[in-house]
Each structure stands twice: as C-alpha cells, then as structure tokens.
Amino acid sequence: MKRFLLLTLLAIFLSTSTAMAEMPKVTIALGTGPMSAQVFMAEHKGYFQEEGVQVELVRRKSGPQALIAMLEGKADIAHTSSVSIVLENLDFSKYAIIATGATADDLLKVVGRKDRGILTPKDLRGKTIGVIKGTYAHFYVYKVLSYAGIPFDEVRIVFMKKPQLAPALADGSIDAFCQHSQPITQAQKLLGDNFVMLKSGAMGRQIVSHIASRDTIKAKREGIKRMYAAMIRANEYILTHPQETIKVVAEAQNIKLGKVKRFIEKEGNYEIGLKQALLTTLEGIDQWAMQCDLVQYDTPRNFLGLIDYSILEEVDPDSVTLIH
Predict the structure, then answer these.
(1) What is the pTM of this model?
(2) CA 212/CA 44 separation, integer angstroms
C-alpha cells in the first residue's frame, strides 16, 4: 500500500513538473514599491498557473534600474516610470510599451521651510530646491513651477541623493525639496513647526509602464498574453479586496504596511491598460527633458511609435482607449 502511494505521489509530481516545464516563461524586472501589485496578487491567487504561464521576477531597487535590467537582457519586461523611458532615448523600432499597470496623481509632494517665506508654490521663486536628477520628482518640480508661473531658470535646482534631502532642508542648505514617503516624514520631524507642505494639486500623472523589446514581444507573445490575462484578473481582485492586497504586497516587497495602505487608499490607482494619459505624459516629459538638456535632441518625438497595442487588444480590447 505504501509503495502504491509513493508511486502515485511520484507520478503526480512528475506530471506537475512536466506541465510547468511546458508553460511559457516571462521574466519581469521591477522596483521595490507597491506599483506592481497585479504581479504579486496574480501569483498569490494562482492566476498565472491557471492561465498557463510561469512568471519570474528580477528585483531591482528602482524603476530605472529595472529598465536597465531589461535593456541588458536580464528580463523580458520592465516595469518603470515614463521619465526613465524618455530619458533613455530608446530606439522605437527596437522597444515598445505594451501596457501600463498603475498611476499616481498624489504621490509626490513639495515641502519647504516656512522661515524662508515659503507657504505656496508661488513662493518658490528664487529659492533653492533639492531633487534627484532625472526622476519623476525632478519633472514634478517643473510642473509645479509652471503652474505657479515661475520660469525654471528663476530657481536654483540642486541635485541630491534621496537620503540627503531631509537633512539638507533641516540645516538650511536648501529651501525646499520634492519627494515622497520617508524623506517627507523625516523632514517634518526635523523641522517641526517650521515645516510646510505645499498644496499644488495633481500636477502630473505618474505612470508605471511595462516595456519590452520588440524581439521579445514577438518571441514570447503567447506567454505575455497569458501573463496579462492573469494580471487583469488580479487587478479586478485588487479593486474588491484592498485589505488583502495591502498585506500581500507589503510582504512580497518587504515594505511597511502603511506605505502600501497609503498608496492604495490615497495616492494611486491600479489599472492594466493603454490610455490617452500615457501619450500626453510622455510628451510633457519630453518637453521638460529637452528644456533641461537631459536628452541629446531638440525636436519632440512621436511617442505613438513607442506603443504596441496588439497584446492588450487581443487580451482585453476595452482596456485600450488611447487613440491610434
């Protein structure tokens, strides 16, 4: 009897292993935040296996590093920011955005010192502002200044690393900075009543794009389609089970529950698709990058050429509303 049970278990194991080996495999590079929640929920709920695809992760500290991993051939798809994509000046004939997964309209904040006369965005004129170069925060400052009617050359931009921002604001080396999460909390503790967070509204939509080489899209098309079928199911589950999502994503990414909770409840939205906002965001970033000499060209690019609609149009046509 024991021999029969052992043989049965072995047969089940071998058949499962064979089935897994026959599944197409897709590798995703992503950063450390909560903006790729569909990946973790699809794995948690078993949707990838049900759709017949293996998904492996290449973890990096940030979206820009995830993009580099894809460009170096270490991943099939990268989840990264629109800013990273524009600044990389990619060859549109070789790479394509195939979907977006999350957006945030209220993630970044500009904070400053009250004793420097900063109470509103208009007070930033003539001030020294700390940013991390070539990030969405850098672009966001540009948008806030534009909203306030302040030319970019009428402020002093200082490029810093993330851990330097709050201490520099506290010791007066800078008057303000733009960032989110931990540096904001740290600055508030260091400055106390001298801390101010500017009310600037939604200055620009932060979008996480999924980008791959066109060769990969062609070679792994079936696996990628199955992956998105699973992630779209996960997205639907996320919308109706936010508390479970918070726990799963926090554990998967090894980040605090509060950070994920804040993103899901206040700062961001999850949606697999291709919307018109993607194109307008890319175009706005392109204008900023040229004005700040962050790219080596001075003619706007047509980013429609960087978008491949075909995967999502086959998996979920309603998710593609970008005019093309």
Answers:
(1) 0.87
(2) 24
* Cα–Cα distance measured from residue 262 to residue 228, given in angstroms and rounded to the nearest whole number: 26
* pLDDT at residue 267, as a whole number: 86
**Strand pairing report for 25-30 and 77-81:** parallel
φ, ψ dihedrals at 100, nearest 5°: -120, 155
User: 253 near 244, Cβ under 8 Å?
Assistant: no
**Is residue 194 a contact partner of residue 202, using CB atoms and an 8 Å limit?**
no
Q: Which of 91, 51, 55 is CA-nearest to residue 76?
A: 55
Q: Biggest alpha carbon distance in the chain?
A: 84
171: tokens are 């010791």
Nearest C-alpha neighbor of 158 from the set 144, 170, 141: 141
Sign of CA dihedral 108, 113, 119, 124: negative
The residues that bridge with 58 in the sheet, in sequence order, are 29
- Locate all alpha helices (DSSP H) within 154-220, ordered by sequence: 165-171, 182-191, 214-219
Phi, psi of 99 (to 5 degrees): -175, 165
Residues in contact with 262: Cβ distance below 8 Å, sequence separation at least 6, in sequence order: none
Residue 100 tokens, joined = 């977006």
pLDDT band, residue 7 (cuts 50/70/90): low
- The C-alpha atoms of residue 208 and residue 100 are separated, in whole angstroms, by 6
List pLDDT tens digits, range 88-140.
999 999 999 999 999 988 788 999 999 999 999 999 999 999 999 988 999 99
Closest CA to 204 of 138, 160, 259, 253: 138
State the pLDDT at residue 71. 98
